[in-house]
Structures are given as structure tokens and as C-alpha cells.
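C-alpha cells incoming
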């Protein structure tokens, strides 16, 4: 008897699953608002040296330099001893203007982003292990509390060092939300609805991305902006009490009574009969791994097929991240202001996800991942050949490439949850998230290759997307396959295909 058969009895896609999606909306919207927040809070406004303690003029075009003051003597110029004056027309305050992170310290605002994603990387490792060993529900609460606490604390930081540390810890907490919220939703539906759940979750990311542009436009001071995009997690904590534990995880960890509690809730909301005593007995005899076993990252590489999946999916995640952020950071203008440009970038992700929702259940996960990565690389390659004076062509191709790269992100999230067994699913997601964050960190470095040769960054990104896309061909297809529960399920040569999950639970029980 498979868990898919259990879901067939209590309802595999109904009001219960809809409520679960609704409970995940707020934390999923908060994610992009924090992951992309650095674009606004760490922006460096136009600035000039303050000539003297009496200088308060907002005029930035009076001939003064931004990092040195002309002295008129033999030395020629000197450092800005009296600080700087900033253009406040776009931002009333950023961390750069508040702590004078310009000139010799100009690298620090962007370094904050790297520090934040290092926190996300650590959180991916820690929360992946915690979730697989202690459950999704309680680990999710820890993620909520840490993200809210450190997020609000960072808004009151009095120094850059304290701020950077708090952003690191905030990133670690947000990593747990990112991993667990999608996995929990996917584990409560059957194989035919997993793609729908993942795409809905991905659309909330796009919604949050759009909202960030609007909120940042209305709140152009960095401290209130952090508070605004973090506070909704307080509501997520209040609604956490209604979040169910993954019954799939409970069963694979030898806790059928607790699993039945949530399955009965599912049946009640979906207007289906509760599990009978016979069905409960069958649940109690489901084959489960050793309950005392604690799973870690090392288990991802101990068996042949899991090892292959981990290495290849890690490469695919890296390629997806480095091309997505490489394109995002390298897209230049539509002649729009920063806020509107950010909004446009978020909007173009939506149609790609809607098209993906149709294709991913028709042609499969592997073709969608390979196709979107290869086409992303192709778009980047086309822009290598298109002359710069054809800016409208280059912009169109770049937007298409960004939409395709976002589609690859959506695909790989779903694909990864289906490749790993329940006992290691969050560890697997944590490992691939680490590979992704390496790609995020490498993307800005790739763009610096422009100093060597103008076209080199695009060539590197193009080659990387094509290579990682072709490597993903070695992953097994998961379309219409039930989720593996144990390591043994993955290592077995064949798994049951479409149809088994639709067999009623009673027919799979022998007297």
C-alpha cells in the first residue's frame, strides 16, 4: 500500500490542500521581498564630498568630486574629511548613505547581499537536516520566528557590522521557509497535482516580487522598508497552528497514529469518510525505515542512484541560479526608473510559469528543465551576436531569457522534491539550495569578466547554461511516478507508474 492510495481515500486535491496553499501564501510572498531587498536598501545614491562642516547644499553638480575635495594647493586634492552629501530624490536613506559606505568602502553595500546568501546557504543545510529528522511543522515555526526576530532586529542596527550579522541570521531563517513551505505542499497531493502546487507557490514568489517594487517606492527609507517586508511573518506565526504536519513524513518515520490525526482532518475538510479501522491497521503495517535513524547530508551520497541524482541536480541548480542572476544583474534599461524596472522584471515571470504549468505535465519534468536551460543559454548567445545599437532586440531577447531562466527555477524546485525520498527530501533540497547559492555568489564575479573582454561574461553564462542543461539529461524522469518514501525506493530499478496511486486503499489490503 502506498501513501498515494491513502490520499485517494481522504482526498488528494481539495479544500484541505487549498487551505494549506493559503497558509503558505504570506511566507512565500515575504521570501522575494527579502531575497531581493538589497537592490533597494543597499543602493548607493549620487553623492559628493561635503566641503566643510557648514556645507549643507543639496547641489551635486557644483564640480566637487565624489571621493576627493579639490584643495587648490600643491597637493591638488584631499579626502572627504567632512563626510558626504547624498541625492535623496530616489531614496531618503539607504545603508550606504547612513554609514557612508562609499569610495574606499563602496564594496560593502553589495557585500551585504553575499553575507545574506551565506546565511541562506547555512540555513539550507541546518533546516534540511532538522526537517527530515524532526518534522516539517515545528521546523517551519522555528524558521518563522528566526526570520521575524532577526529581520526586525536588523532594521534597528546601529552599525554596519551588526547589520551584516543580523542579515546573515535572517537569511538562515528564511532558508527554512523557502525549503519547507513548498515541500510540505507537495507531500500532501498526489502525482497529478504536484506540478500545480509547485507552480502556485512559484507564482506567489512573482507576486511578492511585484509587491516589493511597489512597497519600496512608497517606503524609500531602508529601516521602515525592512520592517514592512518582515512584519507579515507575525501573521504567518499566528496561522501556523493550522498548518498540518506532513502525514507522508509521519508514516515514513513510524508514527501512524499522528498521521491518522492529520489524514482525518484532510478527509473532513475534503468531505470524505475518515479512515476505517482496517485502513488504520494497514497504515500501522506500512514499511518504514528505522525510526531511530537520523538522516544527514552524507546519506545523499552513500548509494549509487542517490549519489548520481545529488551530483547532477547540484550541477543543474548551480546552472539555473548563475544564469538567472547573471541575466538579472546584467539587464540594462528600458529607460524606466529603478522601481518600474524591478516591477517589469517580476511581471515577465508570470507568463512563463503559466505556460510551464501546461507543458510540465505533458512532456515531463526533464524535458522542461533541459529545454528552459538550453533556451536560456541560446538567448544569451544571441545577445552576444546582436549589435549593441539594436537595443530593442537585445532587450526583447534578454527579457525572454529571464522568463525562461525563471521557468527553469520553477521546474527544478518541483523536480528535486520528486527525485529525493521522503526521509531525505529536505536534506536533498538543502544540498541543492547550497549549490544554487554558490551560483548566486558566482554570478556577480562572472560579470566582472567584462573588464577582460566585453563579451566574456555572456559567453561564460551561455556556455554554463548549455552545459548544465545537457547534464540534466542524465536525471531520471518523474512524471506520473509516486513519490519515493525511502532510500530503497530510489535504489530499486523500477517504481510504480501512473495508475497505482488511483487504486482504492481497500483493494491494496489483503485479509
Amino acid at each position: 500500500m502506498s501513501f498515494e492510495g491513502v490520499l485517494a481515500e481522504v482526498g488528494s486535491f481539495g479544500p484541505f490542500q487549498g487551505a494549506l496553499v493559503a497558509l503558505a501564501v504570506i511566507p512565500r510572498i515575504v521570501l522575494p521581498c527579502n531575497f531581493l531587498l538589497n537592490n533597494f536598501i543597499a543602493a548607493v545614491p549620487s553623492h559628493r564630498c561635503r566641503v566643510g562642516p557648514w556645507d549643507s547644499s543639496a547641489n551635486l553638480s557644483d564640480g566637487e568630486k565624489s571621493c576627493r575635495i579639490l584643495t587648490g594647493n600643491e597637493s591638488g586634492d584631499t579626502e572627504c574629511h567632512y563626510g558626504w552629501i547624498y541625492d535623496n530624490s530616489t531614496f531618503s536613506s539607504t545603508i550606504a548613505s547612513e554609514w557612508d559606505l562609499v569610495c574606499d568602502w563602496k564594496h560593502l553595500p553589495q557585500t551585504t547581499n553575499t553575507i545574506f546568501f551565506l546565511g541562506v546557504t547555512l540555513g539550507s543545510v541546518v533546516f534540511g537536516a532538522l526537517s527530515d529528522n524532526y518534522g516539517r511543522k515545528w521546523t517551519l515555526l522555528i524558521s518563522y520566528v528566526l526570520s521575524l526576530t532577526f529581520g526586525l532586529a536588523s532594521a534597528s542596527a546601529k552599525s554596519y557590522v551588526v547589520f551584516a550579522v543580523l542579515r546573515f541570521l535572517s537569511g538562515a531563517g528564511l532558508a527554512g521557509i523557502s525549503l519547507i513551505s513548498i515541500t510540505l505542499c507537495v507531500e500532501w497531493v498526489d502525482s497529478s497535482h504536484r506540478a500545480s502546487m509547485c507552480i502556485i507557490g512559484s507564482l506567489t514568489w512573482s507576486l511578492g516580487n511585484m509587491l516589493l517594487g511597489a512597497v519600496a517606492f512608497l517606503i524609500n527609507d531602508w529601516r521602515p522598508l525592512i520592517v514592512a517586508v518582515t512584519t507579515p511573518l507575525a501573521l504567518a506565526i499566528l496561522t501556523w497552528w493550522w498548518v498540518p504536519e506532513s502525514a507522508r513524513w509521519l508514516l515514513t518515520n513510524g508514527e501512524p497514529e499522528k498521521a491518522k490525526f492529520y489524514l482525518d482532518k484532510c478527509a473532513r475538510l475534503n468531505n470524505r469518510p475518515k479512515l476505517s479501522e482496517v485502513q488504520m491497521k494497514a497504515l500501522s503495517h506500512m514499511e518504514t525505515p528505522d525510526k531511530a535513524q537520523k538522516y544527514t547530508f552524507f546519506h545523499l551520497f552513500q548509494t549509487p542512484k542517490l549519489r548520481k541524482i545529488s551530483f547532477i541536480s547540484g550541477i543543474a541548480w548551480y546552472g539555473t541560479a548563475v544564469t538567472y542572476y547573471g541575466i538579472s544583474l546584467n539587464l540594462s534599461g528600458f529607460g524606466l526608473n529603478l522601481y518600474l524596472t524591478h516591477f517589469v522584471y517580476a511581471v515577465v515571470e508570470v507568463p512563463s510559469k503559466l505556460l510551464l504549468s501546461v507543458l510540465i505535465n505533458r512532456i515531463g519534468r526533464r524535458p522542461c528543465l533541459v529545454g528552459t536551460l538550453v533556451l536560456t543559454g541560446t538567448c544569451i548567445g544571441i545577445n552576444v551576436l546582436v549589435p549593441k545599437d539594436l537595443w530593442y532586440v537585445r532587450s526583447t531577447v534578454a527579457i525572454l531569457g529571464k522568463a525562461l531562466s525563471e521557468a527553469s527555477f520553477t521546474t527544478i524546485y518541483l523536480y528535486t522534491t520528486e527525485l529525493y525520498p521522503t526521509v531525505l527530501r529536505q536534506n536533498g533540497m538543502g544540498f541543492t539550495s547550497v549549490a544554487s547559492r554558490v551560483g548566486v555568489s558566482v554570478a556577480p564575479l562572472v560579470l566582472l569578466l567584462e573588464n577582460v573582454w566585453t563579451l566574456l561574461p555572456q559567453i561564460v553564462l551561455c556556455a554554463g547554461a548549455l552545459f548544465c542543461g545537457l547534464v540534466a539529461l542524465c536525471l531520471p524522469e518523474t512524471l506520473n511516478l509516486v513519490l519515493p518514501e525511502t532510500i530503497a525506493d530510489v535504489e530499486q530499478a523500477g517504481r510504480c507508474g501512473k495508475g497505482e496511486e488511483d487504486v482504492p486503499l481497500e483493494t491494496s489490503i489483503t485479509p
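note: The chain has two domains: 1-45+86-287, 289-493.
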